[in-house]
Design goal:
2 copies of one chain form a homodimer. Chain A is of the alpha/beta class. Chain A contains 9 helices and 15 strands. Chain A has helices at residues 3-17, 22-29, 33-45, 68-85, 100-108, 122-130, 153-160, 185-196, 239-243, and strands at 19-21, 49-52, 55-58, 93-96, 115-119, 134-138, 141-144, 149-151, 166-170, 173-175, 179-182, 201-204, 216-219, 226-228, 247-248. Chains A and B meet through helix 1, helix 6, strand 6, strand 7 and helix 7 of A and helix 4, helix 7, strand 6, strand 7 and helix 8 of B. Strand 6 of chain A pairs antiparallel with strand 7 (141-144) of chain B. The first copy, chain A, binds a DNA duplex through residues 3, 22-23, 31-35, 37-38, 53-54.
Chain lengths: 249, 249
DNA sequence: TAAATTCCCGCACAAAAACGCAGGAATTCG
DNA sequence: CGAATTCCTGCGTTTTTGTGCGGGAATTTA
């Protein structure tokens, strides 16, 4: 990996998360901490980031202060993202829905990963696009401004043409009896198509959405291969899902 | 292998992958690293690539990751945008390419305008999405990271299905004899399809790009209905185009 | 205050770049 | 046609750059 490339990645991370730890960077990019520190120093000298003990901050961050709730939720989503990323290997074809958890996953993808991501979610696509080694396929159709995702029969037809290795679904509600449910009819149609077109279906969900139900049904638990939350795999909340045959991470 | 040939290959690789390692180049082309380095140096001096230790990066790489500056020559582009918007009326179907001029137009669209915009350009789509009354149709396919636009046969097929009232093309180069030209083969294919699918074709171009030529031909002047620049319509630079039958604004 | 990180400094090693040189190919010109 | 010139390329050597490592100083955290 080229030095400039690495620095670009760092800068990208900083601008996204508003902060970055040199320790996590050095495991992500797989270089020594010294190298990261030197990079951060250079970027700081150019005024691109603000270097602090243990990492760096985005320049635009000096005034904005997230609520504790927000930060907490983001940490949870990062945990989920890390677990999801562990399932991805080089060369995979991956379908993803939209949603903040998916975005967080996109932001955390290791830079050396080579894979093809297929999605109709505009924010997700934006993240994938910044990644150096990822091929991005955009599902086109009418854009739903609410969900910032392409919806409609054309989009569904395109998804049907794909056979993906794995499909990551951002989940609005999941319940042992009702399965996965959501509240936007068009998005549900898309998710159904994505499930059909994938060898493996993985749901990403923060714990607070577990055991909740929304009006429109996406699929039953039997169609789901794995459920990823920020909880440890042996958490009691997850037991019913394991019993129902869903793998948990 | 000829020198020019080699450099063309290198340039192609860089534009394709956004980066290139001199080591991999020298095994690919089977010449010494010195030769590669000299080639890269020449290309860097011509501004075609950005040379870094260990290889080279595409110019768009820097744009993607280090974009700190705003839109290039924004005032001029706003003038162009205003003129273009004057052509749009409620209910129109409008095809647009990518490019900063198009983005600027998207930003200047009056909020009460009702129209349907069709594009494969991610930055343009992002702007359209923010407008309250605009319907957005996204052309899907593989995303070219250079141009941030979807390219490929699927995209072209989708464009062919459309019959738009007007098509706005961001123009890289226009010349009285050579017509409209560009430097990215895939983008050119798209633009050709867009021209075919539109009742009216409008080129947006800042004055400094007038009378310049790029390697790949998009279309002749006869296929263009209107040319919009920031210059007043009676500017002498535009006279040859008016004589060639192109309307000017 | 003590322990644990993190930072800073110098050093060593490897990779890449720069430089000069020489053989060979292409071009120019008498 | 043939000689002179220029350009291109590869090779060895030197210089620069990039990276990792160890130890001690500085800073944070418990």
């Amino acid at each position: 990996m080229l030095k400039k490339e690495r620095q670009a990645f760092i800068l990208h991370q900083v601008n996204l998360h508003n902060k970055v730890l040199s320790s996590s960077l050095c495991t992500d990019i797989n270089v020594s901490e010294d190298t990261i520190r030197r990079d951060l120093q250079e970027l700081a000298e150019e005024g691109k980031v603000i270097k602090v003990h243990g990492g760096a901050l985005s320049h635009s961050f000096n005034q904005v202060y997230f609520s504790t709730n927000g930060v907490y939720s983001q940490n949870q989503k990062q945990i989920i993202a890390k677990k999801a990323i562990a399932l991805i290997t080089n060369g995979m074809f991956i379908l993803t829905s939209g949603g903040t958890t998916i975005i967080e996953m996109a932001r955390c993808l290791p830079p050396q990963l080579r894979a093809t991501f297929i999605s109709g979610s505009i924010p997700a696509i934006l993240e994938y696009m910044h990644h150096p080694n990822i091929e991005v396929i955009l599902i086109g159709d009418r854009i739903s401004k609410n969900s910032k995702i392409t919806v409609g029969s054309e989009a569904i037809a395109k998804i049907r043409q794909v056979k993906a290795d794995v499909c990551f679904l951002g989940t609005n509600a999941i319940d042992v009896e009702q399965g996965v449910t959501d509240n936007d009819w068009e998005v549900v149609q898309l998710k159904k198509a994505m499930i059909e077109s994938s060898k493996m279906v993985v749901c990403l969900s923060i714990a607070e959405k577990i055991n909740s139900v929304q009006p429109i049904r996406v699929c039953g638990l039997n169609e789901i291969d794995m459920l990823i939350t920020e909880l440890p795999a042996d958490d009691s909340k997850l037991k019913p899902y394991i019993d129902a045959g869903v793998k948990v991470a």
